[in-house]
Amino acid sequence: MPSKTPHSNGNEPVENGIRNNQDVEMKDDSSSLKGKGKKGAKDGDDEMTVVVPPSKASKQSSKPPSKDADADVAMEDSDELAEGEVKVDPVVQTVSDIKSNFALLDRAIALFDARFSLRALRSISSIRKRLTPDILAQVITETFPANAASSATAKHLLAAIGKEGLPLGRQPGPEVEVDSEAKAPAKNGNKKENKEIIPEVDLFLGILIQVYLFDSKQFQRGADFSKYLSERIHSLNRRTLDSLAAKVYFYYSLFCENVAPLPPSPQSPIVSIRPTLLAALRTAVLRKDIDTQASVIVLLLRNYLLTSHIAQADLLVSHTQFPDNAANNQVARFLYYLGRIRAIQLRYTEAHEHLTAATRKAPSSACAVGFSQTATKLLMVVELLMGDIPDRATFRMPTMEQALHPYFLLVQAVRIGNLEDFETTIADNADVFRKDGTYTLILRLRQNVIKTGIRMMSLSYSRISLRDICIRLQLGSEESAEYIVAKAIRDGVIEATLDRERGFMKSKEIGDVYATREPGEAFHDRIRACLALHDESVKEADNTGIVQAMRFPMNQHRLELKNAQEAREREREMAKEIQEGDLDEDDLGGDFEGM
Prior knowledge:
Number of strands: 3
Structural class: mainly alpha
Distance between the termini: 89 Å
């Protein structure tokens, strides 16, 4: 091939000839794949030598793209073949994904950093849909060696998924071996068998089994297995298990909620797990375990509310302190349950503050839409109990429109003050309200509907008889109407007078609204909300270290260093002048000794 390169066109054709030789070699390889002989390669060589004269650069620039396109087509075909060859079995991929988290748990122990454990827990959401008993059994049998130290733990894990008879220490398949050799090529099989399995690995596998049992609705088996995991956590006493322990207690509580008899029955299993959760909370507080402490407090509040033990839930809140550095999801749950407790206790202002904060802190992801809907439903009922009307834009949100339709009808009835529509709405949607846990709070709105109706009538009529009020509000007697009107006047709902002898209510003339206390109270509420938002923002910023950057000017230390250097230079100059005799202590004013 080098002998056929042209040598009458200077140096440039030599370079082009070398490039053509490379192209010919690529074409020769591709032609050999297609079954062509050497003649095709020689023809390709002749074509390349003819098309490269130095005077026609345009032809040279237009010719190679066609060959590059051919090369691209050949590369695409080879990529498709490669993808077809490297296609991985979903089972093998799932096993590999589960085992990849073991390295994160090892690093969490070596560096004593919980972030690696949290990263392993976050991967469960992508693995849980692919979990099967065969996959879990394969991971367990390939992870645990066949020795007495780990056989008991592995047998409990296998028994939870119904695979008790499988032998331990099974070698992985060929696909997994290739993957493991690529990641760690210098490992011996005997050493792997004798390697001790850390407790974090079997707890992580236990959480995967909990997830599988919960998704497959095996609640009784999951509750029994979760009890074993909680006892194992208590016996190990390792700080590196904090993040994993919080997840174990979470699923333990969920299993007990779904085991018959269901709450609010006093025989429900959720009552029996309260000592376990309280002991876990006490241990977490002593160890300053923030993850377990926040998770268990939320679980206990949920536990008490499911059985309607409001007093015990209030005592738990008053005797414990929720950690400030807890995860945002746990803070949102805690604020929601706290708002529910305050709403039941008729402390609507505090409930409104907590529920508003819970809706703001709720995650914006699609998986948290249910929590946002539940918190918003309770928030609307509390606003109605406070005498306010929720914003109409909330009902138009795409994620809220369908779920909040019964509450939209309820708000309309309360806003108009129509007691008949209110009772009809409650009767038609009683099952929905009971499921949401707002039915008893909605029943309290009857007095608000009556007050709203009275206020609407006081604005529409300058004088109306108590009999007409009784008919319009569907009250039992005129005495009931008289009592309700008197209470509305005393509470400041309406500006009117009641004539008992003649049996009518006379409304006062509407004066200047700015002469009343209403604008001042509304302005005070807005200022208080702004101050609360400012305090919360400063608190969150202080936890992240932003406040320190705001309080102190930037580069202040550099300015101080510069001033100190200038002062030292002045001292050296003055000392040098004194030594040379240019200055004396009298010229310095006697301050040189103290300097």
